Amino acid sequence: MKPNLPSRQSLRLKDYDYSLPGLYFITICSDRRIPLFGQIADDQMSLNGAGEMIAKRWMELPLRYPKIELHEFIVMPNHLHGILQINPMVKIVGASLVGALGISTENSEPPVSTSAPVVTIGQIVGAFKSLTTNDYVQGVRDNGWPKFNKKIWQRNFYEHVIRNEKSYLSIAEYIQTNPQRWLDDIYCVL
């Protein structure tokens, strides 16, 4: 017999394929919106060690998923906003370890492929949450970061499919100016 768990309504668009090429606006919140990643002072975001780790892991996502490109993003005290693009036309270049180390490989070209596993926004966000949670646990142990209660991220995340340039520009500005609106931000918890 299964326990009665609260049903959660999906935030995803019904019947939309989240592996399709396009631009996606993503917001990921810390559990209970606890400010773990830094603070806002004088309308500027000041990342702490955990916030720097979050930003670094976000910027490394294209290494894990070569067919994505990152656009504007910001780590706030208790959430991350970012624009992520799935681009199937990105060429994936395989590099040998020798080439990656900067050792000359004259007369040899790395293999080029346009095939890569299909990935969804949910898989990307899931991997990001997993990687950052593991890093955060280590930061608590090694660097004295604030302890947390079982998880650092909320279960779900917000996404919005960006359908045109006007929407993209509006969202990009929203991300860039987010610290200036912190006290009015729906994610702000004081």
Automatic annotation (TrEMBL):
<dbReference type="InterPro" id="IPR036515">
    <property type="entry name" value="Transposase_17_sf"/>
</dbReference>
<dbReference type="InterPro" id="IPR002686">
    <property type="entry name" value="Transposase_17"/>
</dbReference>
<protein>
    <recommendedName>
        <fullName>Transposase IS200-like domain-containing protein</fullName>
    </recommendedName>
</protein>
<dbReference type="GO" id="GO:0004803">
    <property type="term" value="F:transposase activity"/>
</dbReference>
<dbReference type="GO" id="GO:0006313">
    <property type="term" value="P:DNA transposition"/>
</dbReference>
<dbReference type="GO" id="GO:0043565">
    <property type="term" value="F:sequence-specific DNA binding"/>
</dbReference>
<feature type="domain" description="Transposase IS200-like">
    <location>
        <begin position="20"/>
        <end position="178"/>
    </location>
</feature>
<dbReference type="InterPro" id="IPR052715">
    <property type="entry name" value="RAYT_transposase"/>
</dbReference>
